[in-house]
Every structure is written in structure tokens, then in C-alpha cells.
Specification:
- There is one protein chain.
- The protein is built from 10 helices and 6 strands.
- The protein is an alpha/beta fold.
- It has a 6-stranded mixed sheet.
- Helix 5 links the parallel strand 2 and strand 3.
- Helix 4 packs across helix 9 and helix 8 crosses helix 10.
- The chain is globular and about 75 Å long.
Length: 304
């Protein structure tokens, strides 16, 4: 992403205070402030520096550096570690990191029970839960989209249950950066993730535990008495929706129980946004073709 700044030194566009100091600060006029983005070289430099830091140090950098920072979580072990670390950092209230939970309406009962336990264990943390638009229950979801949408149209399911709620949350809450629970040891597409990533829309994604293994995460959870999903005691290591999550066997990858038997390894939230834009465009095209065919058939019947 290229950096961009206001060209030249137009002294007529800055306030008296700015002129006196010779520099522009956040107290000056908004028009005089340059717009700054991560350049590719800057991003590479930051990742090289953060790569060698402990997760707590990465989180401290995030809090100090990134405005409108949130944590997205489905309350997996890595996200719980991040949450607990943040709770111990004594962050001033205005800078506290709120949680974003995307309730697909198809989570395990154990996951939803954990959400309540987390609220009680971390009472100072704000939790924002987002559901599919205009829908409150799994029954309503089925009525609107049909039964077992994840089998009949996986792309649409990801969009309706995950991607659209996420984009709506980012828009309504003015989210500019998010902490995620992704780690390289989870394998698949996550095997090469950097500490800092930027998606197509400019959202900054931080993976503070990118370097940690499942064992390190598990040891932290136990050592700090962090509440966790009961399913992890029943052979699960990565927990998503009930219909696409299974326990794993000894020696399998950590996320082997997600979408078992399918090529899929990621939910829609961590896939490129353009993929879903293309999908929606294709759906719109098919819908227009269907309307046209119906109109032609109607004309033919009238002519007959």
C-alpha cells in the first residue's frame, strides 16, 4: 500500500500554531495533516521487528500505534490467550480493546456457554456480537436461506453468516485494525502468515501469536486459569460451527477437524474480500438471467 501525503508546504493552509512550530500535529487543522499508509517496505520492516517480540510486546505496540483497534474472536484458545494478556496490561479505559464475536447462529452450545463465562471472567471488556443481517435464530436463517445452506451453497453461507456481519461491524464500529487468533502452526494457508497483514480494503490485521505453537497456547491457558471451550477436552482443537467441526485424532493437524474431507481451510472472514464481491456479482447475473428467462417464457405463452 503506497503512502500518500499532502504535497509541498502551503503555509496558507496551516494554522498559526502550526506555522509557529514549523510542524503539523494532531491539534492542527485536519486539512494540513498528511494521509499516511503502510508502504510495502515499511510493512516489511515492521514485520521483521515484531517477529522477534513476545506477544505481550506486540500487543503493547498495537495499543500504542493503531487507532480503532478491536479483537475478532470465536473464543478459540489463541483468542483467549490474547484476551487474557490484554486484561493484564492495565490499559486505560479509552484504549481498551473491544471484542467482536460473529454469531453465525450455528455455534456449538458449548461455545455460547463459554461466551457467558468470558463475560463474567472479564467484566471490563466490551463484547459486540453480530448476527446475520435481520436474523435472530437458526430457524429464521433456515427459513430465509433454505435448510443446510452450508451444503447447498457454501459461498452464500459464508457471506450471510460471516462476511456480511463482519463488514457491517467494521463499518458501524469504525474498525481500522483487528487482532486475530491465527498462528503459523495451524497449517494450511496460515503457515506463512506475517504478524501484520493488510487486506484489500485497508483493514490492518495483527496476528500477535503467529509464532506460538498449540502447546504454548495450551500451557498459557492452564497456567493462567483462562476459561476455555469444554469441547477441547473431547478431542477438538479448533472449534467453529457445529456442522463443519469434528474432533481430530493423534497426529492430525490442529485444524484438520474443520471442513473435514473438503478443500476448504478458511472461513470467509479471512478470505480475500474480492472473492465474495465476485461471488455476489455472479449471483446477481444469474438472478437477472432467471428474470429474463421468465419474462421470455411469459411472452411465449401469451403469443401462443
Amino acid at each position: 500500500m503506497p503512502s500518500r501525503s499532502s504535497p509541498g508546504y502551503d503555509m496558507g493552509s496551516v494554522s498559526g500554531q502550526d506555522v509557529e512550530s514549523g510542524y503539523v500535529s494532531d491539534s492542527g487543522s485536519e486539512a494540513s495533516l498528511p494521509e499516511l499508509y503502510f508502504t510495502k517496505s515499511h510493512l516489511h520492516f515492521l514485520n521483521r521487528q515484531l517477529q522477534n517480540l513476545e506477544p505481550q510486546e506486540i500487543l503493547q505496540w498495537c495499543i500504542t500505534t493503531l487507532p480503532s483497534l478491536f479483537q475478532t474472536t470465536a473464543f478459540g484458545l489463541t483468542g483467549l490467550v490474547t484476551l487474557d494478556m490484554l486484561s493484564k496490561m492495565k490499559i486505560p479505559r479509552p484504549q481498551m480493546v473491544d471484542l467482536l464475536f460473529f454469531d453465525t447462529l450455528h455455534h456449538f452450545p458449548e461455545t455460547l456457554a463459554l461466551v457467558d463465562r468470558i463475560r463474567n471472567h472479564y467484566p471490563l471488556v466490551n463484547l459486540h456480537a453480530y448476527k446475520p443481517k435481520g436474523i435472530e435464530t437458526a430457524e429464521e436463517f433456515g427459513e430465509q436461506y433454505g435448510e443446510r445452506l452450508w451444503e447447498t451453497n457454501d459461498e452464500l453461507y459464508d457471506w450471510a453468516a460471516k462476511v456480511e456481519p463482519a463488514q457491517r461491524a467494521y463499518r458501524e464500529l469504525h474498525v481500522r485494525a483487528v487482532l486475530t487468533g491465527r498462528r503459523r502452526s495451524q497449517g494450511g494457508k496460515r503457515g506463512e502468515i506475517a504478524v501484520i497483514e493488510i487486506d484489500e480494503a485497508g483493514l490492518v490485521k495483527i496476528n500477535p501469536l503467529a509464532n506460538w505453537t498449540f502447546k504454548q497456547v495450551q500451557e498459557y491457558i492452564k497456567a493462567n486459569n483462562v476459561p476455555y471451550n469444554e469441547l477441547l477436552d473431547r478431542g477438538y482443537k479448533s472449534v467453529g460451527d457445529w456442522h463443519s467441526t469434528q474432533p481430530i485424532t493423534e497426529g492430525e493437524d490442529e485444524r484438520a477437524g474443520r471442513w473435514k474431507g473438503q478443500q476448504k481451510t478458511e472461513c470467509g472472514i479471512h478470505n480475500p474480500r474480492s472473492k465474495f464481491a465476485q461471488y455476489l456479482q455472479e449471483q446477481e447475473r444469474l438472478k437477472r438471467e432467471e428474470v429474463l428467462c421468465q419474462a421470455l417464457q411469459s411472452d411465449l405463452q401469451v403469443s401462443a
